[in-house]
Write a structure and sequence with these properties.
CATH superfamily of the largest domain: Type I PLP-dependent aspartate aminotransferase-like (Major domain)
Number of domains: 3
Shape: globular
Number of strands: 17
Helix content: 25-40%
CATH topology of the largest domain: Aspartate Aminotransferase, domain 2
Number of helices: 20
CATH class of the largest domain: Alpha Beta
Radius of gyration: 25 Å
């Protein structure tokens, strides 16, 4: 199946039936088929191909033949007939071959293999660096200056790594030329274990600490070791999309539970309970939360522990922003409330120490490990297979976690992150048709758009329209597995003068914006 031919025929069929991308998404939802806006966007743009069941749904919804839509059938539309040359004998060229063998253009006519991506990637999406970002990259290549508010990368916005951290890495570089133990350097893991003690995380030894090339690698490792085809894992909506992507890639099913905007974006406990089945293996928390900036209080965490205890679920807690908490609030590790449950807690230095490029994260196994011995064997196997994480970055963990924590200067009144949060919250909520819950942690805000006022039915299209008109790159809510087309995420790492220009441009854009359906 040719991606280009499929995309061409899909667009032609949609035009014939007067259907937009959002119409297909809604039709799929009514039939219980998992099809997101980003999926359809990638099909239409010729970037990916659907699974067989999705192909048959699309053909049915568009009143066309699935073989023709996929390109298996050689019959052409009039437009295709004009675009594609006939063979020399006047006959139509042979239909696309269903396998991965196609004729190349060599004079000798030798058959050559073409290699397609794995079907395991069909439903894997990561729109933090997806189609909207690709359009921004295209614009930059043409010389357009784009303000990127799409990714939490502190360094480009003037946040510097503490001098002591840089100094200590330089001093140790010659000692970091070889592999470390698979789980990491002893000194790094000892410092992380002591940090876990300060967070009251129970039953942790040095052998329960794994370092990784950022938390991202460890999330992928954990999902791969746990999930079989059909297994379910509860993930928040909105989420950090890597969780859903890794669970899907591992063969599992990501079941999204709602975080309630009307309740400070806290997890909806009733919704969690409704979505647990006999296939549910675990629940994921992102606290402090990306993309909402929410911080979960002890009472909410205790309710989640109670649910996990009742249903014997593993708890995965992504706490990479635990040192970026404002307003005098306290971050509580959920593992500290669950000594009788198996918990995996993730953190690292990318955000708190402004060294996202160093790629150093860790995970801590805690609580009751008696019933997860086989799973831990799987974690050890995958950890051994990648040999070890970045050794120079491991070498500065002890320095980073000890002594003065410079990040604290950023998150109090007068500090950059605190003041930028204050500014962006007011600036965005002053725009007619925009509301937001004030974030308490991290450096993201997740505003809500009045979809009726702006006639928005496709939030990815909104992000593209804003990018093309105002040269501002944000990520639409759908990129975080939020189903309604009414949110977007802003990273407020730039200085206030830059945020002021951005907010003004967004306000100007929305003052006249009406999405064209």
């Amino acid at each position: 199946m040719s991606k280009e031919l499929f995309a061409q025929r899909l667009k032609a069929s949609m035009e014939k039936q007067h259907m937009k991308q959002i119409d297909l998404v809604r039709a799929a939802e009514t039939r219980g088929i998992k099809l997101g806006k980003s999926h359809v966007s990638q099909y239409v743009s010729g970037k990916t191909l659907p699974r067989a069941d999705v192909l048959h749904f699309l053909a049915d919804a568009l009143h066309t033949d699935p073989d023709w839509l996929s390109g298996m059938n050689g019959s052409e539309t009039a437009a295709e007939a004009q675009m594609e040359p006939k063979a020399q004998n006047g006959q139509a060229p042979a239909p696309d071959k269903p396998a991965d063998i196609q004729k190349n253009s060599n004079p000798g006519g030798k058959t050559m293999r073409t290699f397609k991506k794995s079907s395991k990637l069909d439903n894997v999406l990561y729109d933090v660096r997806g189609p909207v970002v690709e359009e921004a990259n295209r614009m930059e290549e043409e010389g357009t200056n784009v303000l990127k508010l799409n990714i939490g990368n502190p360094a480009p916005f003037g946040f510097r790594t503490p001098d002591e951290v840089i100094y200590d890495m330089r001093q140790q570089l010659t000692d970091c030329e070889g592999y470390s133990a698979a789980k990491g350097l002893f000194a790094a893991r000892k410092a992380i274990m002591q940090y876990a003690q300060l967070k009251n995380i129970p039953n942790v030894t040095i052998n329960d600490i794994y370092t990784g090339n950022g938390v991202s690698e460890l999330i992928n490792l954990c999902m791969s070791a746990l999930l079989d085809t059909g297994d379910e894992i509860l993930i928040p909506s909105p989420d950090y999309p890597l969780w859903t992507a890794c669970a899907t890639l591992a063969g599992g099913t990501a079941v999204h539970y709602i975080c309630d905007e009307q309740s400070e974006w806290y997890p909806d406990i009733d919704d969690i309970k409704k979505k647990i089945t006999d296939r549910t293996k675990a629940i994921v928390l992102i606290n402090p939360n990306n993309p909402t900036g929410a911080l979960y209080p002890r009472e909410v965490l205790q309710k989640i522990v109670d649910v996990a205890r009742e249903h014997q679920l593993i708890i995965f807690s992504d706490e990479i922003y635990d040192r970026l908490v404002m307003d005098g609030e306290e971050h509580v590790s959920i593992a500290s409330l669950a000594p009788d449950l198996f918990c995996v807690t993730f953190s690292g230095l990318s955000k708190s120490h402004m060294i996202a490029g160093f790629r150093i994260g860790w995970m801590i196994l805690s609580g009751n490990k008696r019933h997860v011995k086989d799973y831990i064997e799987g974690l050890n196997m995958l950890s051994n297979m990648r040999l070890c994480s970045n050794v120079p970055a491991q070498s500065i963990v002890q320095t980073a976690l000890g002594g003065h924590q410079s990040v604290k200067d950023y998150i109090v009144p007068g500090g950059r992150i605190y003041e930028q949060r204050e500014f962006i919250y007011k600036a965005l909520t002053d725009i007619p048709g925009v509301t937001a819950v004030k974030p308490k942690a991290a450096f993201y805000i997740f505003p809500k758009l009045d979809t009726k006022k702006f006639n928005i039915v496709n939030d990815e299209q909104f992000a593209l329209d804003l990018l093309r008109e105002k040269k501002i790159l944000i990520i639409h809510g759908g990129g975080f597995n939020w189903k309604q087309p009414d949110h977007f995420r802003v990273v407020y790492l730039p200085r206030i003068e830059i945020l002021e220009k951005a907010a003004t441009k967004i306000g100007d854009f929305l003052s006249t914006y009406q999405q064209q359906i």
